[in-house]
Amino acid sequence: MKNKITPINHERVLKASDFIVSKTDASGRITYCNEIFIELSGYSEEELLGAQHNIVRHPDMPRGVFHFLWTTINEGRECFAYVKNMAKDGSYYWVFANVTPDPGPDGRPAGYFSVRRKPHQDAIAIMTDIYAAMLAEEQKAGPRNAIEASLNLLNSKLEQLNLSYEEFILSI
């Protein structure tokens, strides 16, 4: 279970040469994490290993984003996303994430690799606005319909831009 941490307005920034790497099992429990992940998150390796990857989830992230991500990777496809994470002390850090399924002997994902790097500042500004709008939709819709409402807003924006999700994410 995730600890209740109060977010603080302090950003931790990745260096351009930093790559956060982690691996999870099929249920999202961390089975590997590199030193940069440990350092940036503020958790010890012992605290991270075996924990759900959402241990670093920031409350500014809409549920719809993670639903989309999990749907995509469970279908065996990689997913790119801009993610605002929260460190153990409540500070935050933005990443540009690539999550890739690790297929098991039956071809279904047995786990997932995630590599995150420093995002472009322009992309953070764009995604901050989109995520705020998605969160507002989730709150308006209530818990039962939050994900659907959030994804409907995202899909509407993508239709206006005439871009697929991947095209949009990789273009910013």
Can you walk through the features of this model?
This protein has 172 residues and is of the alpha+beta class. 39% of the residues lie in helices and 23% in strands. The protein is built from six helices and five strands; from the N terminus they run ββαααβββααα. A five-stranded antiparallel beta sheet has the order 2-1-5-4-3. α4 packs across α5. The longest helix is centred in the C-terminal third of the chain and has 21 residues, at 121-141. The mean pLDDT is 96.
Q: For this entry, what is the oligomeric state of its chains?
A: single chain
Structural class: alpha+beta
Q: Report strand order across the widest sheet.
A: 2-1-5-4-3
Rg over CA atoms, rounded to whole Å, is: 16 Å
Model regions low in confidence, pLDDT < 50 over at least 5 residues: none
Helical segment count: 6
Provide the residue-averaged pLDDT. Answer: 96
Taken from the alpha-carbon principal axes, the silhouette is globular
- Largest beta-sheet details: 5 strands, antiparallel
Sketch the topology as an H/E string, one letter per element.
EEHHHEEEHHH
Helicity level, as a percent range? 25-40%
Which helices and strands appear, and what pairs or packs with what?
Layout: E1 19-25, E2 30-33, H1 35-41, H2 45-48, H3 63-74, E3 79-86, E4 92-103, E5 109-117, H4 121-141, H5 146-161, H6 165-171
Antiparallel strand pairs: 1-2, 1-5, 3-4, 4-5
